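User: I'm curious whether this sequence folds into something compact or stays loose and floppy. Could you predict its structure so I can see for myself?
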Amino acid sequence: MAAKAGDNPDSLMALSTAFCLRNLRRTMCYLGDGNKLCLRSDVFLPSEICDKLVNTYMELVHSDSNFEPQDGFFQLFSDPRSTRLTRVQLREDLVRDRDLEAIGKQDLIELHLTYCNSLSARSLKTLASFRQTLVSLSLFGCSHIFYRKGGAPLACNEDDEEEEEQQRPASRQALDTDFSFQGFNRLRLLNLGGLPEEVDPEALLKPLPALTSLDLSGVQLPRAAFLAQWKERLASLVLYNVDLSEELVNTVVELGHLRHLDISRERTSKFKMTRKILTAIVQGLVNLVSLDISGHIMLDNCTVPHLEEAMGRPSIEPCKSSIYPFQELKRPLQFLGLYNTTLCNVTHIPAYKVKLPRPGELLAMQAFAPAHHEHQINQLIKALGLCYYRVRPKTCTPSSFHLVIAALKCHKYEKSVQVTGSAALFYLTNTEYRSDQSMRLRRQVIQVVLNGMEQYQEVTVQRNCCLTLCNFSIPEELEFQYGRVNLLLLKILEPARQDESIQRIAVHLCNALVCQVDNHHKEAVGKMGFVKTMLNLIQKKLQDRMCDQVMEFSWSALWNITDETPDNCQMFLNCRGMSLFLDCLKEFPDKQELHRNMLGLLGNVAEVRALRPQLLTPQFISVFSDLLDSKADGIEVSYNACGVLSHIVFDGPEAWGMEEPLRDTVMDKMMAAIQSWDVTSRRNINYRSFEPILRLLPQSIAPVSQHWATWALFNLVSVYPSKYCPLLVKEGGIVLLEKVLELQTSHEETKDMARYDLTY
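Assistant: Here's the prediction. I'll summarize afterward.
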């Protein structure tokens, strides 16, 4: 079968990089003096590898909760004789002044810093060390980098200084007036979005005559004329959320080499976009290929009256434009942003791509744009909302899937984005869209869903994320994040009072995750506190005298997690599990599903020889004996009760050690129960191994146990031959059944069933 698009494996470079970062001490590093991480002396890493290491490190820190930031990581790249960095992207508060100083000797060509609010004016001095080589620089959202750390002693420890700085209000910081871009002669692309009002952009930018791309998003420009210094070079100008004025517009239209202009906005403004202004932009910027005027108030005289619009299908020909000023374009624009303007509904728009309030188009513009994080987040939420309402009636395009994932990854700290995006993912991952989804894409969904669960203990996000996980094949598709998803679900179930719907979904997921997985997975989850968590839920439901799905799923989950895992069985006994079993039987005597799950679990406990003495009490044996007569759930409760007793009596009369009830009496009752069962019964049970049953066959100490085991095999191989006959052969059951026929102590009925088993 052909692989789906996007199912190609990760590159060897990507796999090797991630492996090295997760195993630094086993690959390229060692611990030096003071447990300091050091690069091995025989390692030399070219820029292609170093850039990948640093950028992947940042990605793992922000997207993988299992990846721990490594103290001193950036110090590994301090010596350009052994490491070379050229293109680095760093973001958010993880990055400190000392980290940037560590790479200060590198010849960086590109440095993108986004929302690195832990950086201070110390880092401006480090920036100066890159002035000979830097071509592209972004300081977007680094609002503290232009302020000194005032008030700290000169000789203080660097860590103490940074801790003190985090606690100091911004108002007590002193603006750094010494920094200048003087000497940054190679700098061509600069992003200063979010520049503080106290910083004079004109003075700061004056030493940069060769800029070709400038982003001043959200920056106040009281004097705009200085932009004219780049009229012969500037190709891209972003003035998102900049307050426009007549002076600023007049200056912009002088920049005749502009190809990309963004004057869009999110917040309200008194400025009105007129036909005259749009005409001036079109006439003055003849090289323009991309224009974004989203969010502006447009005057009505900009558009052709509906009755006068060109007839026929929508056209991108400028001469037919429904927007008057754009009729003067020499060619259609590559992109035109009209979102949240009155121009959205016109027929003829002279552009190949248009930003309108459509989920795919708007998401495409917003999902990958964390640079405008603070200002454009509302647009992103609107876009996700539109995608959600499109995807529910199955009218959303497959490309929206990638865009929702990108939005959730880039904005994982925005609660509103997580709420709306997780709702869209729930519908995008259901069966209607599944045929278009590669394994890699579905794994990306799982990652962003788990990120949301980790970040937000809020009802809506948790419910959306849990419901989305239910759309996956469990445990197969979640196994690559097995430990992480179990920890998150157990954390959700910790509170004594939890939203009922979330609790029900989370317990269902927990149960599915421990069903049909290897024993080492079950043992690991048991050590996480799985058994105790389930028993706490059961205890709470008992207190409320409520036997609902949470109660039944909790016992089912315990049944699954104790299967062939003695340690988990021991935990069940240690956490007063038997007491809860008796209490549930007494409180809910007619709940058949509950009884079946509880007896199935106790069957697992009884299979562990070392634990059987804890079940061998008059109270427990009497309860198990009484349940032999149960007709609940067909034969399942009676069958499981008999299985528990079969293992107990298998230990012989010496282990019985009590006068009442008598061992022989119990065995007689077991035999009567087995003879009452219909051997053609279809079963609500699933065996992964026959080993616990087979060990009861070749023995004479408890013939009734042998009879129960033979009946179980006869029922399973006759009703489900294709599934269980191969398992019987594989695990050596044929030889053991032949030995049953040889034993004189075997009942004739037992031998008859053994003969039938051997014929299948």
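Summary: The radius of gyration is 35 Å. The chain is about 45% helix and 5% strand.
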